[in-house]
Design brief:
Layout lengths: L1 H14 L3 H4 L7 H9 L3 H24 L6 H22 L7 H20 L8 H23 L2
Length: 153
């Protein structure tokens, strides 16, 4: 009887999607979306974007550490979608008269995350290196856009 339950649990767990696959299509959780909709101030929305970015970055980092490279691309795409949405919101709504502390913190987060992923690039299989480098380049492009917003370049 115990063996039967073990087999059933094994089959069911293989059929269930992992957390990374379950939210690949949407970079924001329902709670994060709700929070963004409720926040009238772009400064507060930046904190939500940073939290979501940290969550996705952590997921990517864990996938690399567990060598689950087949899921990295989907998570990277999700992260880039989030950053694109954040960039548009910030560009349209931020006050350029003074430097946003939240945007500075968000840019620092991105810089550290990109640096960490560059260090982990050697762990990525050779056949995925080119895609991984492309994602890192695109992430750095968004980070540089944030720097331009901050310093008016």
């Amino acid at each position: 009887m115990l063996l039967a339950w073990t087999l059933i649990l094994a089959v069911v767990s293989q059929e269930m999607p992992s957390n990374s696959k379950a939210r690949v299509s949407e970079p924001l959780t329902a709670a994060e979306k709700n929070q963004l909709e409720r926040e009238p101030n772009v400064e507060d929305r930046i904190r939500v974007y940073e939290a979501a970015s940290s969550r996705i970055y952590g997921s990517i980092r864990n996938l690399i550490l567990r060598q689950q490279f087949e899921d990295v691309g989907a998570e990277m795409s999700s992260w880039l979608d989030l950053l694109s949405e954040a960039q548009q919101d910030i560009e349209q709504n931020i006050s350029r008269k003074k430097k946003s502390k939240n945007l500075i913190r968000f840019e620092i987060h991105l810089r550290k995350a990109i640096g960490d992923l560059k260090e982990r690039k050697l762990q990525v299989p050779a056949d995925q290196q080119e895609d991984f480098e492309s994602w890192l380049t695109r992430l750095d492009h968004v980070r540089k856009k944030f720097v331009d917003i901050l310093f008016g370049s």
